[in-house]
């Protein structure tokens, strides 16, 4: 009887590790894609500011992750739920970004407005 309890406990722990690895991987991929799009989408004159804001978002995540993990020790739904919602929101945002392959991007907003006016 005692062996069954240990075995089922290990299964639950294994599932938690699976979801932890899954969420870590997808969070990392979404933030990497967000950084790539941040560097690529913005014109040169605002790229540094946009990169700084994206970097600050990563630092913000690094500060609050340990807090959520420690809160998750008493209530695992809270920790996994918050991480899950963050992953979901980042994934939706990344999939809504436009494709920029083969498109020349303007360096300033004035150039972009001129391109748009000429296209109309």
From TrEMBL:
<protein>
    <submittedName>
        <fullName>SOLUTE CARRIER FAMILY 22 MEMBER</fullName>
    </submittedName>
</protein>
<keyword id="KW-0812">Transmembrane</keyword>
<dbReference type="InterPro" id="IPR036259">
    <property type="entry name" value="MFS_trans_sf"/>
</dbReference>
<feature type="transmembrane region" description="Helical">
    <location>
        <begin position="77"/>
        <end position="97"/>
    </location>
</feature>
<keyword id="KW-0472">Membrane</keyword>
<keyword id="KW-1133">Transmembrane helix</keyword>
<feature type="transmembrane region" description="Helical">
    <location>
        <begin position="22"/>
        <end position="42"/>
    </location>
</feature>
